[in-house]
Design goal:
Layout lengths: L7 H38 L1 H37 L3 E5 L5 H12 L4 E7 L1 H12 L2 H7 L7 E6 L5 H11 L5 E5 L3 H42 L1 H9 L4 H44 L11 H29 L4
Antiparallel strand pairs: 1-3, 1-4, 2-3
Helix pairs in contact: 1-2, 1-9, 2-7, 2-9, 7-9, 7-10, 9-10
């Protein structure tokens, strides 16, 4: 009788072991897929209550997401307005045109400054006559009362504090009589944006907790309605993990559908408010290209909804199942 070759049993057991593992994996995936579809069917059978729960979750998720979109657009608008900030350097009366132009050229090469523009006293007088309507009165003065001016454009990346420091430095130049910058409105806008951003995080945390409570209470009522069924399953030897699985998938569906409702709400608000907001910003010589949630941000909202739904369900179902004892 021929002897078996060494290692032949290990070679034959390798494919068999892999086949058993694949079979267990396929059985596990089929079980979870069946449970996922059954939980969706259960939500469909009581669609009115499920719809109300999903709508509440969607609104709760849409509010902080809407604040996030608002902050993102206002931040872009503030950045555009920050680029239009100008520092006006009023030169002394004895500074000549050549000296003023030379100073403007020197400032253009300094750090923190994007560009400079020199306006001589005569150019300033002509512009003021065209825009003010007091040309005859100015001609009666006999001499030009306006000084030369250098308009300095700071870099858009500079924070408000750095721009204020730049103004203080430029005002120390010997040829400069006064440096002016109306930046109070920009500081107020920055403070408002910081407040709205912080408020969006606080409201988001509170409404996320509300989503947990909503999903948890819904699942708790579902467990109470199926209490007798759960007791029978426990008597037959079903584990808590097996009983818990459909409820967890119900929480996943609640979170996913609620996040989809939130995206629909945000899209509706975008369509309703986009036109008026664009008109408003255009009236202030600004342009705002309104942006909603990007694809990545939308996917993040969906993942957040699923996570909140699953977590709210897990917290409740573990406690409720532990309290149910088969009689």
């Amino acid at each position: 009788m021929p002897e078996s070759q060494p290692g032949s049993s290990s070679r034959s057991s390798g494919p068999a072991a892999r086949g058993r593992r694949r079979g267990r994996l396929a059985s596990w995936a089929a079980s979870h897929a069946r449970c996922l579809l059954e939980s969706l069917g259960r939500l469909h059978r009581r669609w009115v209550a499920s719809l109300l729960t999903v709508l509440v979750i969607g609104i709760a998720l849409a509010l902080p997401a809407g604040l996030y979109v608002l902050v993102k657009n206002l931040d872009t608008l503030a950045s555009n307005w920050h680029q239009s900030v100008r520092i006006s350097l009023y030169l002394k009366q004895d500074v000549s045109v050549d000296a003023g132009q030379h100073l403007a050229d020197d400032l253009a090469g300094e750090a923190g400054i994007t560009a400079t523009r020199f306006i001589s006293a005569n150019q300033g007088l002509r512009q003021f006559k065209r825009t003010s309507g007091f040309g005859a009165a100015l001609d009666a003065l006999g001499s030009n009362p306006l000084p030369g001016v250098i308009e300095v454009t700071p870099k858009a990346s500079l924070p408000p504090a750095a721009v204020s420091q730049l103004v203080a430095q430029l005002s120390q130049r010997k040829a400069v009589d006064h440096a002016a910058l109306d930046q109070a409105w920009l500081r107020r806008l920055t403070a408002i944006l910081a407040l709205i951003s912080r408020a969006s995080w606080v409201i988001g945390a509170l409404l996320s907790a509300a989503v947990l409570f909503i999903v948890g209470n819904t699942i708790r009522l579902d467990i109470e309605n199926r209490r007798q069924e759960i007791e029978v399953m426990k008597l037959l030897g079903a584990s808590n993990a097996f009983i818990r699985r459909p409820f967890l998938y119900s929480g996943v569906w609640y979170g996913l559908l609620g996040a989809l409702v939130a995206l629909v709400v945000l899209a509706a608000c975008y369509l309703a408010l986009g036109g008026p907001l664009s008109t408003l910003t255009a009236s202030y010589q600004g342009s705002l290209d309104l942006k909603g949630l990007s694809l990545r941000e939308s996917l993040s909202l969906l993942v957040l909804g699923i996570a909140l739904g699953w977590l709210g369900c897990a917290i409740t179902v573990n406690r409720q199942l532990a309290a149910i004892k088969p009689k």
